[in-house]
Amino acid sequence: MGLILRNVFNFSAGPAGLPKAAMKQAQAEFVNWKNLGLSVMEISHRSRFFLQVAEEAEQDLRDLLNIPSDYEILFCQGGARAQFSAVPLNLLGNSKQATYIDAGYWAKSAAKEAKKYCDIDIFKAKIKKGGKNSVILAKEWKIDSNSAYVHFCPNETIDGIEINDLPQTDKPIVADMSSTILSREIDVSKYGVIYAGAQKNIGPAGICVTIVRNDLLELSNSLLPSILNYKVLAEKKSMFNTPPTFAWYLSGLVFKWLKKQGGVKAIEQINREKASILYNYIDESKFYENNVHVENRSIMNVPFQLAKPELNIKFLMQASESGLMELKGHRSVGGMRASIYNSMPIEGVKALVGFMCEFEKKYLT
Amino acid sequence: MGLILRNVFNFSAGPAGLPKAAMKQAQAEFVNWKNLGLSVMEISHRSRFFLQVAEEAEQDLRDLLNIPSDYEILFCQGGARAQFSAVPLNLLGNSKQATYIDAGYWAKSAAKEAKKYCDIDIFKAKIKKGGKNSVILAKEWKIDSNSAYVHFCPNETIDGIEINDLPQTDKPIVADMSSTILSREIDVSKYGVIYAGAQKNIGPAGICVTIVRNDLLELSNSLLPSILNYKVLAEKKSMFNTPPTFAWYLSGLVFKWLKKQGGVKAIEQINREKASILYNYIDESKFYENNVHVENRSIMNVPFQLAKPELNIKFLMQASESGLMELKGHRSVGGMRASIYNSMPIEGVKALVGFMCEFEKKYLT
């Protein structure tokens, strides 16, 4: 086995870096878990050993997000993309319409999938403000009264846009929180459904957390595929089919790590500090630019462009040589993107800024 | 970390034991894969590093099963249960009916889910033969000419029943091979669709391999949830959404391990030898019984009953103390079940027979 002679910081947008402590524990007990002589992934999901893992993970997540007791927590498969279908299939009831707030790539993708099942009332919330990308305040979103629910994506991973307020509506609010869950405090009781692919702040790819207000389970239609049926999943405690046990276990380790850091309130402070270090540097620099208005800048995903795009490949190569990994922007946007999820330590952001500063000096003139 | 002072053999029906060599490699490179300083689960599924993993896994599986080039290999989520919906949703086309061969729990479960989407022509294939559970020969299965396809489950994990022949039909044959894939040679070209949850002979729970004949992709309906749409998954090379990268990678290691063992032909011989050691001992004993006719005995799942069911708990406890784990039968059947998938070495079966023999001596009288 090779030694790591350098510190590596992983800015991947997802599957993203996971907390080192959780990964080390998972590695140490990988083939001999609880001294059983087996891996956690080699036992029945219905064994008492695994049931304890499952229950603790659920309780820890409930504690971390203060999830009220009238909400079910489902550990699903198929990622957030499966939820793009599951949401309308579960929530429409007798209604034929839903409102989708469009503020970026993922919100649009969710609306496109939902369109198979109902009319979509789209509210275009993305605007320019002072020449920068911005989002209309949620209190001004127009939500058609015929809609069964309103869907939005509070953090657009690709665009680096974050929405910080909630609409005033009596419709269930549904949020794709894949890249924002656990990064900042939220009031779960304001939502009907929250879902989040794990591969950013929860655990490895292959599991998706869905939090559903109990009363909404009654809307589910028995004709929809069971694997997407919230009521079935709730009744079977997310074990309607064999769940992705290792991903569930590893997510549980991440929840325990987060509790140790002081929980969501504490990590939010660190996340805000990390984000401001990076945005402050970008704003002061003439070499880098972020095109999101300050009110809607994501604290998780920081896209930025180089003044000289012809240097993009050089930037990525030299960054990677310095142990700053996976900084390439999404192919639809180009440029760079630093994803600074919970597991990214403040040192990682400082190292990135240090590198950006040197790179700027070298190539500005 | 505790030392393992004994050899443990894992008879779990699934999630099942994985090959030790694959597990050890995964552990060794768990936090520093390819000397990147990152885990394979911490990088983008679209990075060249992961794409190589994905492509190699697909090619290795193609080699192992001799999958013809006009078949797509899809790495899906949601387990075989998701395929219970996906199969009718993808294959019905304009047809309104499918034939399901019922020979056990899983075949019945597949039919129940499909019934949401079409009429089900059920052929009850389970019979008694010499007082034992058996299955009508496939050439005698009646398949209604209005059916879009015929579905069966060649190995019933719970009942310990295996079907060794194929129906003569011009309809696409669809097989749930979750607990038989890679255990014995098959002729893929005879099937329309083969699917298999990974957690027996492929890898960890959370991934499901679906092998689809190309021409059937054209039947898929754009209204079905994209995550279940074979055509979408094929076009996106199983990356329509973020795939379960770690499960995919680990499955790839298992494929490489199997190639090293000599492939499916070689492992089939070992599997048959393992099964016959166990069945022979059970048949000779007056203390244990297997209730499946010799023609349909599974080489993967061997359920057996004790002559004195009141000793079940004692048997399980003492077995576990001897390092023979997860022998409890499915709750719907009771008794014991030894699952002896590819990763179970012949020594494990011999150790089990040795223990059964001692237990019999102790408690027979």
UniProtKB/TrEMBL annotation, chains A, B:
<dbReference type="InterPro" id="IPR000192">
    <property type="entry name" value="Aminotrans_V_dom"/>
</dbReference>
<keyword id="KW-0663">Pyridoxal phosphate</keyword>
<feature type="binding site">
    <location>
        <begin position="241"/>
        <end position="242"/>
    </location>
    <ligand>
        <name>pyridoxal 5'-phosphate</name>
    </ligand>
</feature>
<feature type="binding site">
    <location>
        <position position="176"/>
    </location>
    <ligand>
        <name>pyridoxal 5'-phosphate</name>
    </ligand>
</feature>
<dbReference type="GO" id="GO:0030170">
    <property type="term" value="F:pyridoxal phosphate binding"/>
</dbReference>
<feature type="binding site">
    <location>
        <begin position="80"/>
        <end position="81"/>
    </location>
    <ligand>
        <name>pyridoxal 5'-phosphate</name>
    </ligand>
</feature>
<dbReference type="InterPro" id="IPR022278">
    <property type="entry name" value="Pser_aminoTfrase"/>
</dbReference>
<keyword id="KW-0664">Pyridoxine biosynthesis</keyword>
<feature type="binding site">
    <location>
        <position position="157"/>
    </location>
    <ligand>
        <name>pyridoxal 5'-phosphate</name>
    </ligand>
</feature>
<dbReference type="GO" id="GO:0004648">
    <property type="term" value="F:O-phospho-L-serine:2-oxoglutarate aminotransferase activity"/>
</dbReference>
<dbReference type="InterPro" id="IPR015421">
    <property type="entry name" value="PyrdxlP-dep_Trfase_major"/>
</dbReference>
<keyword id="KW-0032">Aminotransferase</keyword>
<dbReference type="Pfam" id="PF00266">
    <property type="entry name" value="Aminotran_5"/>
</dbReference>
<comment type="pathway">
    <text>Cofactor biosynthesis; pyridoxine 5'-phosphate biosynthesis; pyridoxine 5'-phosphate from D-erythrose 4-phosphate: step 3/5.</text>
</comment>
<comment type="similarity">
    <text>Belongs to the class-V pyridoxal-phosphate-dependent aminotransferase family. SerC subfamily.</text>
</comment>
<keyword id="KW-0808">Transferase</keyword>
<comment type="function">
    <text>Catalyzes the reversible conversion of 3-phosphohydroxypyruvate to phosphoserine and of 3-hydroxy-2-oxo-4-phosphonooxybutanoate to phosphohydroxythreonine.</text>
</comment>
<feature type="binding site">
    <location>
        <position position="46"/>
    </location>
    <ligand>
        <name>L-glutamate</name>
    </ligand>
</feature>
<comment type="subunit">
    <text>Homodimer.</text>
</comment>
<keyword id="KW-0963">Cytoplasm</keyword>
<protein>
    <recommendedName>
        <fullName>Phosphoserine aminotransferase</fullName>
        <ecNumber>2.6.1.52</ecNumber>
    </recommendedName>
</protein>
<feature type="modified residue" description="N6-(pyridoxal phosphate)lysine">
    <location>
        <position position="200"/>
    </location>
</feature>
<feature type="binding site">
    <location>
        <position position="106"/>
    </location>
    <ligand>
        <name>pyridoxal 5'-phosphate</name>
    </ligand>
</feature>
<dbReference type="GO" id="GO:0005737">
    <property type="term" value="C:cytoplasm"/>
</dbReference>
<keyword id="KW-0028">Amino-acid biosynthesis</keyword>
<feature type="domain" description="Aminotransferase class V">
    <location>
        <begin position="8"/>
        <end position="352"/>
    </location>
</feature>
<feature type="binding site">
    <location>
        <position position="199"/>
    </location>
    <ligand>
        <name>pyridoxal 5'-phosphate</name>
    </ligand>
</feature>
<comment type="pathway">
    <text>Amino-acid biosynthesis; L-serine biosynthesis; L-serine from 3-phospho-D-glycerate: step 2/3.</text>
</comment>
<keyword id="KW-0718">Serine biosynthesis</keyword>
<dbReference type="InterPro" id="IPR015422">
    <property type="entry name" value="PyrdxlP-dep_Trfase_small"/>
</dbReference>
<dbReference type="GO" id="GO:0006564">
    <property type="term" value="P:L-serine biosynthetic process"/>
</dbReference>
<dbReference type="GO" id="GO:0008615">
    <property type="term" value="P:pyridoxine biosynthetic process"/>
</dbReference>
<dbReference type="InterPro" id="IPR015424">
    <property type="entry name" value="PyrdxlP-dep_Trfase"/>
</dbReference>
